[in-house]
Amino acid sequence: MGDTDARDQRPAGSPAAAAVHRLHECGQTLATVESLTGGLLAAAIVEIAGVSAIYRGGLVVYATELKAVLAGVPEDLLAARGPVDPDVAVALAEGGRRRCGADWGLATTGVAGPEPQDDKPVGLVYVAVAGPTGSDVRRLDLDGGRDHIRSAAVIEALRLLAEHIPDADDAGVADPAGTGRR
After folding, report:
1. What DSSP string describes 95-113?
2. Average pLDDT in the 129-151 region?
3. Which residues of 74-106 are buried (b: 16+ CB within 10 A; e: fewer)?
4. According to CATH, what is the number of the domain 15-164?
5. Cβ–Cβ < 8 Å for 175, 181
6. Radius of gyration over alpha carbons of the chain, in Å?
7. Where do the structural domains in the chain lie, given as residue ranges?
8. Three-state secondary structure call for residue 122
9. Is the separation of the CB atoms in 164 and 136 below 8 Å?
């Protein structure tokens, strides 16, 4: 029958499928670190057939102290800024990448509600990506209830990742056997 890869069985149009497909083509790996999404990001990623070739694993660091202990976020950064901060989001992505031995780290942090947290409004979310060429963070100001905010954060994190993954040709991926596959 031949090999099946992530492109063959992904849900059409899924941001997770797009990211998994691109990583698969480049031969690169991914790790996740989640706070407000509490595992939803990892769940969206592992729904894609063939993901085991690229997904290393992830951390759910809901408690602030676990962001330092497990994900390696500097304690002084957390003390100064709190867990909902763009630099904390980047540190989460970088920590996940490092701790899981992945090419890419993807992180979420924010306030899903129903109440504000540490003077941060409900719907304030930061998603961050860290990869071979550096890091990026995006601020999201989301409306809606808790479930919507968490789901939208997952989609936006995956979109941010997809924007940063190089095309397979740009990543220097070769097809030495001339099979047409990477």
Report:
1. HHHHHHT-SEEEEEEE--S
2. 97
3. eeebbeeeebbbebbbbbbbbbbbebbebbbbb
4. 3.90.950.20
5. yes
6. 17
7. 15-164
8. coil
9. yes
